[in-house]
């Protein structure tokens, strides 16, 4: 059903000597706007593999921040599993397990150790959810950290949309008894060279802190923080509650062109709200802000053409980015950022307004 040619687009990382290219999945809903229904259909195809492989096991799905948080949440929801995600944000009064993702722009990852301690004896298997696995080194490093901390006989698996591991890497995993599940096998041999061929001559926009009065704002309750241990069913129920709270506020209607936008690690709630809007008969696109600085190009075959540089809605002074905005009838921004970070939201509103968006509704999920 899914193929490398159908899903994979190669982009160029900005100033990253560790790996000059980035694999962009056009249906994932992170960098490229996509129908939320199409994104969920792809995630559900991967979830089907887990259902068939582990029908009697109790699973913990761990989604990798930031790109695979929605994937992991959807896998947990579809398999009725426990769920938590890694994070790069700070959570007060918790203990972390730290590990690194060396090829990434923001290398530090962490997982809340306190929650794992309460959960580890209840599960049969940990499944790491990723958008793509390339070498598998990050996950092996994380497994080593977990085994050092929790000397239990928990089994491990990996579920990714794409798998670019070579034969040697796959053999390492097989030797450790780690199962691999994926939709598409990718071949990275030509990716670096392909990325280098693209000119970095796209449009680069530095957004300014705009006037928040150009937006409407709503605070929704019953928030579940997926950076802490939850369950797929619980997280989905919270998203159902979110939709129930906001659907009248955002003037539910059919036949509108709508953008449902997430922020950094907060991707799944925006996709969920987007799918609800799509079911009403609207034309919905979903993507999210990101910490990844990606070069943009004017070339048609290149996946990203315009880059908006923003200030993070989670931390003052931190650069974040958004790609290929356009004008919509309505923009619904769903974020779990602190409501005090108005400068970051201001830059986001400015970027949206520059594209002609006039109806911008911000949902603060608390």
Structural overview:
The chain has 366 residues and is of the alpha/beta class. The protein contains 10 helices and 19 strands. The strands form 5 sheets. Strands 9-8-7-3-4-12 form a 6-stranded mixed beta sheet, sandwiched between helices. A 5-stranded parallel beta sheet has the order 11-19-18-13-14, covered by helices on one side. The radius of gyration is 20 Å and the shape is globular. The model has no long low-confidence stretch (mean pLDDT 94).
Please trace the helix and strand order, writing H or E for each element: HEEHEHEEEHEHEHEHEEEHEHEEEEEHE
Count of DSSP-assigned helices: 10
**Helix-and-strand structural type:** alpha/beta
Main pleated-sheet profile: 6 strands, mixed
Outline:
globular
Order of strands across the widest beta sheet? 9-8-7-3-4-12
Rg computed from alpha carbons, rounded to a whole number of angstroms? 20 Å
Q: In whole angstroms, how far apart are the ends?
A: 38 Å
What's the average pLDDT? 94
Low-confidence stretches: none
- Helical amount: 25-40%
Instruction: Kindly estimate the percentage of residues that lie in beta strands according to DSSP.
Output: 25-35%
Q: Tell me the number of strands.
A: 19
Summarize the structure.
The protein is of the alpha/beta class. It has helices spanning 4-7, 36-53, 69-79, 113-119, 137-149, 167-175, 191-197, 232-246, 268-279, 342-354, and strands at 8-13, 21-25, 59-63, 82-85, 96-100, 108-112, 125-133, 155-163, 179-185, 203-206, 215-220, 230-231, 257-263, 283-289, 294-295, 306-311, 319-323, 330-335, 360-365. The two termini are 38 Å apart.
């Amino acid at each position: 059903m899914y193929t490398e040619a159908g899903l994979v687009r190669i982009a160029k990382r900005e100033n990253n000597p560790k790996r000059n290219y980035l694999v962009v999945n056009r249906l994932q809903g992170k960098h490229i706007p996509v129908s939320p229904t199409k994104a969920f259909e792809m995630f559900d195809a991967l979830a089907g593999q887990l259902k068939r492989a582990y029908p009697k096991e109790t699973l913990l799905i761990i989604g990798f921040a930031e790109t695979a948080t929605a994937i992991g949440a959807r896998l947990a929801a579809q398999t009725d599993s426990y769920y938590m995600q890694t994070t790069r944000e700070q959570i007060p009064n918790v203990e972390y397990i730290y590990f690194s993702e060396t090829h990434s722009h923001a290398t530090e990852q962490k997982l809340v150790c306190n929650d794992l301690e309460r959960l580890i004896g209840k599960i049969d298997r940990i499944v790491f959810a990723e958008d793509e696995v390339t070498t598998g080194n990050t996950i092996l490093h994380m497994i080593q950290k977990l085994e050092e901390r929790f000397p239990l006989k928990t089994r491990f698996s990996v579920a990714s949309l794409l798998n670019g591991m070579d034969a040697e890497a796959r053999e390492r995993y097989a030797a450790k008894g780690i199962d691999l599940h994926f939709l598409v096998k990718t071949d990275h041999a030509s990716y670096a060279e392909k990325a280098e061929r693209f000119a970095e001559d796209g449009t680069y926009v530095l957004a300014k802190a705009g006037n928040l009065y150009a937006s409407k704002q709503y605070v929704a309750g019953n928030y579940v923080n997926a950076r802490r241990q939850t369950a797929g069913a619980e997280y989905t129920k919270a998203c159902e509650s979110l939709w129930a709270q906001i659907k009248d506020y955002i003037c539910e209607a059919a036949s509108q062109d709508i953008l449902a936008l997430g922020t950094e690690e907060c991707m799944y709630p925006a996709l969920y709200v987007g799918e609800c809007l799509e079911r009403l008969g609207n034309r919905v696109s979903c993507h999210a802000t990101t910490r990844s600085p990606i070069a943009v190009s004017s070339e048609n075959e290149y996946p990203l053409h315009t880059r908006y540089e923003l200030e993070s809605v989670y931390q003052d002074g931190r650069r974040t980015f958004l790609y290929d905005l356009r004008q919509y009838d309505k923009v619904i921004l769903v974020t779990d950022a602190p409501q005090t970070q108005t400068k970051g939201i201001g830059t986001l509103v400015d970027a949206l307004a520059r594209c002609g968006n006039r109806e911008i509704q911000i949902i603060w999920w608390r």
